[in-house]
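Hello,

Our lab assistant flagged a job as stuck in the queue for most of the afternoon. It eventually completed. Since we weren't sure the result was trustworthy after the delay, we are filing this so someone can double-check. Below is the sequence as submitted and the structure that was eventually returned. Let us know if re-running is recommended.
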Amino acid sequence: MVFYVTTQRQAHEKKFDTALFQDEEEHQETQPQICHMSVKPEDANLTSLPLEAVQRVFRSAEALLSKENAIVQAPGSNKMAFLVESKTSKRPHYVFAERTGRITCENCPGWASAKLCKHAVAVGEKTQQLSDYIQWLRRRNKPLNFNHLGYFRLNEGSWKEEK
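-- returned structure --
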């Protein structure tokens, strides 16, 4: 009886190890390639936000762009409306790019507080309007008050990446 239990345990451990290594290999193979943005966060020169916050938003936007089906065109005749994947809610974000350079993101706390979020940046890059969006943000040139800055930081995550 002891021999049977030991053999059975070894078989389960081997099966577990094999499945674990297969998952790691699949994860490595499916890692998306990070795309490069047409505007660098340092060149955006958004004085209303700390550079670290802008860099983090751009990195998150790059990850969205490199993920398949994370950004899809919204149904209807409007060619500048998109549904963008959300990690904070079950519903996607509705992002609309205007010809003036303004890009809006509905139900997004980051956009509501600073008019800048990863969803808007990703759509700006996808529609080749990122530089126009950055220009629109600069024209607004409204410094954030401490409440909005804190709210932006809470919703966009820590400015410093964890290592």
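-- support follow-up --
The delay was a queue issue, not a problem with the job. The result is valid. The longest strand covers residues 93-97. The CA atoms of residues 22 and 28 lie 10 Å apart.
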